[in-house]
Specification:
Layout (H helix, E strand, L loop, with lengths): L3 H15 L38 H10 L3 H5 L12 H4 L2 H8 L4 H6 L5 H9 L5 E10 L5 E4 L18 H4 L2 E9 L2 E2 L1 H10 L6 E5 L2 E2 L3 H11 L3 E5 L2 E2 L7 E5 H6 L5 E15 H5 L10 E10 L2 H12 L19 E8 L4 H7 L7 E6 L3 E6 L9 E7 L24 H7 L1
Parallel strand pairs: 1-3, 3-5, 4-6, 5-7, 6-8, 7-10, 9-10, 10-11, 11-12, 12-15
Antiparallel strand pairs: 1-2, 13-14, 14-15
Length: 422
């Protein structure tokens, strides 16, 4: 029996011999031999010397990675759904605040429980806050704050709160005047005050406070509140270069041009970094400061700067769009006290203010104090009271020698013993 495998081989060989050969036979592409510096590198094996990179193993694996698999074609395409905004999210905060303003205070505060949007609007709004005339903050020895609010009767909070803990309770109140009593004010405390009091104030009082701030930082703190009156009473500055120098300079008044009253009072003689540059701004202000008092301190203010401020008062024009004028006798007077003027005395001051005294007179004069009164030609302005202090150097008084007998030697024996000894 013939072998079938041999029969197939003979059939295939006869087919190859009898097939028609093509006129042109394509030869495989021969790649140029790569230059290798390593003499031990082995050359690729193959009939042509090099293997075509198109048929290399790396190319095959890359094609497998780029070809999408069967399971990838069966996956459903993922579509990112856009977030649908409700009507409340689309409305601005000012519109929502106007709508919620028609509610009473209790319902207005309860609107915070509806959603996050209304919670943000109520927290930032000042409509639901309870208005108080005066608010006072005190600090204890442990650095915690007590809130003092004279609503119906003066009372203190029962529990003291840390500085960050007073933000939420104070945001439900709106005061016209705030007093900071015996508080150490640094940058951390400034951030607490700016978050708790985010509205304008009429008056700010610092009483026995300890400042660790520069003059520029104090000016920016007051600028956020825009008060019309600021008072510093018996405060000290630990950040100043000297214990007698106070970090209040011209920058505080440059950042707060809305001030109508500034009072600085201290027990010890402190020196302010305020110069004539602040008094020169009186001509540029829309309203002259009604009270400018530097009591118990010295500054860099000179007699020329004071005379320029008085001229600004005498030459001030009436306010526009005012059809009637209030009598000056009803208005409280302007109080300007410039503290102690260095390198000046009473005689120099009287000679310097002599041209201005035709509009006023000298109310009181002494070697350490000078009080002037001025009246403006404009009927709507109240009278001006100016007080200037001088540094007086008292001469050394002649002290007579003691004549009370302390320098005379004497003994404790009585007269009888003296006579007997004689």
């Amino acid at each position: 029996m013939p072998n079938p495998i041999l029969a197939i081989r003979r059939k295939a060989s006869s087919f190859r011999e009898n097939r028609v050969k093509p006129l042109f036979v394509a030869r495989p592409r021969i790649m140029p031999e790569a230059k290798t510096t390593d003499s031990t590198a082995q050359k690729p094996k193959g009939k042509c010397g090099l293997v075509d990179p198109e048929y290399s193993l790396e190319n095959f694996l890359n094609r497998l990675r780029s070809t999408p698999s069967v399971f990838a074609s069966l996956r459903k395409p993922t579509v990112k759904r856009a977030r649908l905004e409700t009507c409340i999210d689309a409305l601005p905060d000012t519109c929502l605040e106007a709508i919620l303003g028609n509610l009473d205070q209790k319902d207005f505060l309860s609107a915070r429980l509806v959603c996050k949007k209304l919670n943000t609007v109520v927290q930032k709004s000042t409509l639901g806050r309870k208005s108080v005339s005066r608010l006072q903050l005190n600090e204890d020895s442990q650095g915690q704050l007590y809130r003092f609010t004279p609503l119906q009767a003066p009372h203190f909070d029962r529990y003291a709160l840390p500085p960050m803990g007073v933000i939420a309770p104070m945001r439900h109140l709106k005061a016209r005047m705030i007093t900071f009593d015996n508080i150490t004010i640094n940058m951390g405390m400034v951030e607490v005050f700016e978050q708790a009091v985010d509205y304008t104030l009429d008056e700010v009082v610092f009483d026995f406070c300890h400042f660790n701030l520069s003059d520029f930082e104090i000016g920016h703190l007051l600028r956020s509140w825009r008060p019309r009156s600021v008072s510093f009473i018996n405060c000290d500055w630990r950040d100043s270069d000297s214990s007698q120098t106070v970090a209040i300079s011209d920058s505080l008044f440059a950042l707060n041009t809305q001030l109508q009253s500034f009072v600085f009072s201290n027990i010890g003689c402190k020196k302010l970094l305020v110069s004539d540059r602040t008094l020169q701004r009186f001509d540029q202000l829309l309203h002259l400061p009604h009270s400018f008092q530097l009591a118990g301190c010295t500054s860099n203010i000179t007699l020329s700067g004071i005379s320029g401020a008085i001229n600004a008062y005498l030459e001030s024009c009436p306010r526009p769009n005012v059809s009637y004028h209030i009598p000056a006798s009803i208005l409280p007077p302007y109080l300007w006290e410039f503290g102690i003027i260095e390198n000046a005395n009473l005689q120099e001051a009287l000679q310097h203010f002599a041209p201005l005294l035709k509009h006023g007179y000298v109310a009181q004069s002494s070697s350490s104090n000078l009080e002037l009164r001025f009246t403006s030609a404009q009927r709507h302005l109240a009278p001006l009271y100016v007080t200037i202090g001088f540094r007086v150097t008292l001469p050394m008084a002649f002290v007579s020698p003691s004549v009370d007998g302390d320098d005379i030697p004497w003994d404790d024996s009585d007269g009888e013993n003296d006579t007997e000894s004689d």
